[in-house]
Write a structure and sequence with these properties.
The protein is of the alpha/beta class. It has a single domain, classed as Alpha/Beta hydrolase fold, catalytic domain (Rossmann fold), CATH 3.40.50. It is 38% helix and 16% strand. It has an eight-stranded mixed beta sheet, with helices on both faces. The longest helix is centred in the N-terminal third of the chain and has 18 residues. The radius of gyration is 18 Å and the shape is globular.
């Protein structure tokens, strides 16, 4: 019996590896950034690029990545889990980016832009409607997908964005300092212009795509006011959006059936209702 489970795990792991795609392959950019597709059955499906969180230093690839991909796939939505470039743990520990560039802005944004382009270019084989390709991100990944909605050229923007307990500001007192440090890099931490340009509550465009925004009031990691700032900015610009603030749930629950609270886990059903209405 043990051999059976080991073999099953090995086969599943091998299948996951074989499905991974280097989004930069063939572009002349010598980077390896992996995307893992979770394809729903049929053609013309809604697609979502999934960006796990991790403070722009690392990734929660399980709860906020592959579990999200499988959940979307099971509900008829094709998902593409992106392991975008982050600063990574050595940069967190040693602060070597005072001297060496390392990974920093705009590397994650460039990866998301390229992933959106890649999926659109291969939408036929993936069975995805290129006009229905959005992006969903968690924590720092929420900042990443929202920055795509605000800062990318219109042709590269996602059709909709889903920031879940997102990092939003780089200037407000509620800033998540670890994410700011990771994204900007130590040598640019005091660059006020860069901080302002990446404070997403300040740059919502009039033609921003629709937004589904979720967070929890008791979030101990990313101050809940990040989402309040974004909601206020979207409202001021009259951008179609849904904002749900749960009282309990904390941070990092992703698509888990166990983490967070029973209250906050309702976000998944609420999202499925919202996305179906968006494209009905």
């Amino acid at each position: 019996m043990m051999r059976f489970f080991v073999l099953l795990f090995f086969c599943s792991f091998q299948q996951l590896l074989s499905a991974q795609v280097n989004i930069w392959e063939g572009t002349g950019v010598e980077k390896r950034v992996e995307m893992t597709p979770y394809l729903a059955e049929g053609k013309g499906n809604i697609g979502v690029v999934v960006c796990p969180g991790g403070s722009y230093f690392w990734h929660d690839m399980q709860t906020e990545g592959h579990e999200v991909g499988r959940w979307l796939q099971q509900n008829g939505i094709s998902a593409f889990v992106l392991r975008y470039r982050t600063a990574y743990v050595p940069a967190f520990l040693f602060r070597f980016r005072y001297v060496f560039r390392g990974n920093r802005y705009p590397d994650p944004q460039d990866d998301l832009r390229q992933c959106l382009r890649y999926v659109r270019d291969h939408s036929g084989e993936y069975g995805v409607d290129s006009e229905k390709l959005g992006a969903m991100g968690f924590s720092a990944g929420g900042h990443l997908v929202m920055s795509a909605a605000e800062l990318f050229e219109k042709t590269d923007r996602p059709a909709f964005v889903v920031p879940v307990y997102p990092v939003v500001t780089m200037t407000h007192p509620s800033v998540h300092k670890r994410s700011r440090r990771a994204l900007l890099g130590e040598s640019r931490m005091r660059n006020r212009q860069l901080r302002d340009s990446l404070s997403l509550e300040r740059h919502v465009p009039d033609d921003c795509p629709p937004v589904f925004l979720v967070n929890c009031k008791d979030d101990p990691i990313v101050d809940y006011r990040n989402s309040v700032l974004l909601d206020s900015a979207l409202t001021a610009r009259q951008i179609p959006h849904r904002y749900i603030q749960y009282a309990t749930g904390g941070h990092g629950f992703g698509a888990s059936q166990m983490k967070g609270s029973a209250e906050c886990r309702q976000w998944k059903a609420e999202f499925l209702t919202w996305i179906k209405r968006l494209f009905q």
